[in-house]
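Board notes (copied after class):
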Amino acid sequence: METISLKLENSFLHLIEKIMKENRYSTKTEFIREAIRDKIDDLEKKEALKRLEKAYGVG
């Protein structure tokens, strides 16, 4: 596993910390990993939908 460095504005970091507490995330790493996974899943679903629309002429 590779380690990366990430700079965030304080206001954004405070929002992340608030959401972490409300949703019982243990660490920022856990929160950020899940956010990235969710974004990747969303993009993959959009791409699959585009392929289906192209294949079936929908949209």
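Comment from the instructor: Helices lie at 10-23, 28-56. Residues 28-56 form the longest helix (29 residues).
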